[in-house]
Amino acid sequence: MSTSPVSGDRPIDLSPSPGDRVETTTCYMCACRCGIKVHLTDGTIRYIEGNRDHPVNKGVLCAKGSAGIMQHNSPARLTKPLRRVGERGAGEFREIEWSEALDIATAWLARVRATDPKRLAFFTGRDQSQALTSWWSQQFGTPNYAAHGGFCSVNMAAAGIYTFGSAFWEFSEPDWERTEYLLMFGVAEDHDSNPIKMGLSHLKERGAKFVSVNPIRTGYSAVADEWLGITPGTDGLFVMALIHELLRAGKVDAGYLVRYTNAPYLVIDAAGEADDGLFARDEEGRELVWDRKSNAPRPFIDPDVEPALRGEVELPDGRKARPVFHLLAERYLHLDYSPAVVAYQTGIAEDVIKRIAAELAEAAFEQELVIDQPWTDWRGVRHETMIGRPVSMHGMRGISAHSNGFQTCRAIHLLQILLGSIDAPGGLRYKPPYPKGFDSLPRPTGRPGDVNPNLPLPGPHLGFPQGPEDLLVDEDGTAMRIDKAFSWEAPMSAHGLMHMVIGNAWRGDPYPIEVLFMYMANMAWNSSMNTSRTLEMLTDKDEAGGGYKIPYIIYSDAYYSETVAYADLVLPDTTYLERWDCISLLDRPISDADGASDAIRHPVIEPDRDVRPFQDVLIDLGARLGLLGFIKEMGRPAYPGGYSDYIANHERQPGVGPLAGWRGEDGSETGKGAPNPGQLDRYIENGSFWREELADEHKFFRNVNHGYLAYAREKGFVKTTDPVISQLYSEPLQKFRLAARGHGDNVPPESERNRIETYFDPLPFWYQPLDEAAADTETYTLHAVTQRPMAMYHSWGTQNAWLRQIHGSNRLYVPEPVAKQAGLEDDDWVWAESRSGRIKVQVKVMAGVNARTVWAWNAIGKRAGAWNIDPAAADITQGFLLNHLIDELLPEQDGGRRYTNSDPITGQAAWYDLKIRIEKAEAEDGRTMPQFDEVSKPAGLGIRPDILRYAGGRRP
Amino acid sequence: MTSLPAQPTPKRLGLVIDLDTCVGCHACAVNCKEWNAGGYHAPLTDFDPYGAAPDGVWFNRIHSYEAGTGADARVVNFPKSCLHCDNAPCVTVCPTGASYKRGSDGIVLVEEDKCIGCKLCSWACPYGAREFDTDAGVMKKCTLCIDRIYNENLEEVDRVPACVATCPASARHFGDLGDPNSSVSRLVADRGGYDLMPEMECAPTNKYLPVREKTTGAGATLPLEDASPEGGFLGWVDRLLSDASAA
Fold first, then answer.
1. Omega into B43 within 30° of 0, i.e. cis?
2. CB A872 to CB B51 under 8 A?
């Protein structure tokens, strides 16, 4: 052995350079928007890490963010503007110069604008610049704008806003540091990514209980203290049974309810009358409650009022009324919502539901926590302490993507409100600039008369209808928008219905369009329902003239996604490391519960291709089209410096611009202030973000905290210091119901009345998801849903050289009992069939899944030829999409009407209502079905290396 | 054959991996990949990266699987990288001395210049923690980010392995497991950290923390009692309100 080489320390470089330059910016690998530090060597990315100072991720970074290098260097990056030369969908293009591309786009758009602006449909997908894209389309004058919220999580967003002036994720977060009990509903990777992981880690360290309600036990559910494998679409029943139990036991925070919620508001009981079910108000329009002291109605706002929560009372004018809470208790104390009754449908045993209710009550009321922090409420009443109810909740796609998701999400918020834990210490905390009262937000624009040639739309497209008067319909009740948002079919569709645009445009229902303009939305693949049919619609031609039914398609993307092949004009975007962006409080904020934040992206690398940031292009097009706000005197461009110029100098209202930090000429103001020419430099110096910590007395009960509300008004977050009273009972819903009963000036067509009457219940109720209810459940016995894997977001990530090594093929996960019955083992092939389509896939047998549910990872499958991936790749041959099984329309009703496969209130795409059957199949050629013709590859795409020796700029 | 350094090494640097909080997100694996792609073993070659069978060099891999069936089934997220064993068979089996264990801190490394690509070490490692780069023809492996942990060009707080710095769930901890008072040693003691496959007698430095006992919410009284046992509808509401206004 003496001659053996020995271990020991050997000379190695322990302090190599981590790069010659480090830049801070914001990640874009998902919607989390974490702060990152990009290390570069000779202009090559050495390393991307989380920014420790950043409020979102505090230094950590997920798999997606860590794979940003491969996203930036992807051979699927587009390299030059493209003009289609072959048939649509073939992928045959010729490269053109930007001048030609912009001329073409301007010509198409100008013609539409000068004749009929609504013939432009502008819809954006993974857009993080909605404050700009919405404003641009408003100036253009088309009513047809939205981002992807309608097929993402609008149920969650709308239910939150209408109920407590906020919503899960971007507008609120569990009090990770203090909560003792977290109930999480239907959350896989989305959303948000890192904060949830960080938060769960805190919870576990403190021994707080974490319950995951999810049909599938992966990810967060796998580490939960308790996993409840609920049947998809029945969460509302489960939650209402919890409410039933809490009410039965009197375990609600009555003091909180009478002070900060509409629980004591008197609801008029006048069957058949126009005010039935509305709140009783005094002559000044103030909501009335029944004062127990004076035994008379008094305005809720009176500081010394002692409201009753039960009892039928007679108003001075003789009408009968009952408090909201009375109605609520009657509803949920009903046996229909008892644990014994809901157990079978939910798949959660009666004793488990009862136990969870008892645990919630124990955590809220026996583990009450008190913070010695005086504060003053909206009535001017001073409180010496802040009383915490350490129960919090979070919900996401599994709630949202059902056609009963709005009411279900409202039920979750009701549960939280009844426990007194909205923005209480330990509860669900607001993130500034929220809360915002539902009645303080914009209403939708685009009624008859609002759309005129060469004129802007007089207001923002999207908003929150307060009642039928805010719908965008003509005199016959026909939708004004191409996606039929804010029509009787989806009255409260606050985010639009992007998933309906292509189908509606193809059908010419409610009208045909001329130009479909899309950004970063893979609508020819995994972002559309019924993908095969969608592809046919995109390529279908008019019988008469031979032109396409959707005549012009302009698309911007940084990559050769499946949708690019369907564009007539392709505007190549940059990667996220080559661009300016702002993560704005006007748009989708990244604040945390303790402070307001916004952030920027700035170019850390110069593009090596002939590509332009989409926002620069949009601003350029705005100037070329002469849109108001995009030009100044003599028609010169208002923002010649492009998007960064706009970010620093645009003012939405005086003093309010895209970024809230370092405003005022010297950068000394926050929230409101004049544009600051040095603002972006200040952001970069500060790590590319801004954050302002709230004062301690402003950190809780913000919906009713006078000090906070005054601060929020001063900063421009809200317009008034009015409180945001939690809406257990939602009066706008009742207004729609009254319209359905024929009251008011805006009533639905006869054919729509029953639907409105049924679903617009002002108190949450549960109904079977619509597509499921319409399905032949004897045949289609299984629920089918998808989940995002943590290492991948969607198709933009599945092309990533590193991430696709983690998730490169796909299986349909089948519960053990179902597999046994069907004689299935791992890797067997099945036909999965719904009422509208079928796919052939391989299965994997799983125990940790609801016994009536199959599932798959989302968006692993790709199309041959797209993304510059080898057509023989497993992502293509073994990947698949469940989208082929999902119809964008519900089955025909009596009279031939086919409604959107969406929530009837919000228009949220009902991805998870799907019911299928599976049947064993032969492997045949070992490829999933359907497979699609390979699309051609544009000439300019990069070389696809056989071996990738990426070394971060290190020289061998 | 290559000799191991005198045991125990003055420091025994390693990882403590918490199986209770690991959600299987692969953040550690990918962040390791990107740091090390430009690090000591650069590059971490990827073969056929956009092709039919993409396969690359990864120092840290996450195995997510379901163990058991029926009610006993459990989803396991199990990150695995080199465990920097005291009795590292991958070192003693190496014919050239390429594979070695540092005497000062116990980190097991491969010196690529001496590696002849015979793969004896990967056969010897019971954990399957070695990664052969067929393009370079040499064995590569986790270095515990030796080019980070002592790196004077990094802020002190950043001198931890990339996988530890990036883990969103704080499921990975780095430190000196030879020092009984180090935070990682205390964590192992408090949480019952254990060796992977101790029967192989490799004496791994890295430790795994088991799944914690589940929080049960056992303080709750079951089931909730009726507030109005006599059945008076909402009889309790007024009482609650009186209590609330008294408070």
1. yes
2. yes
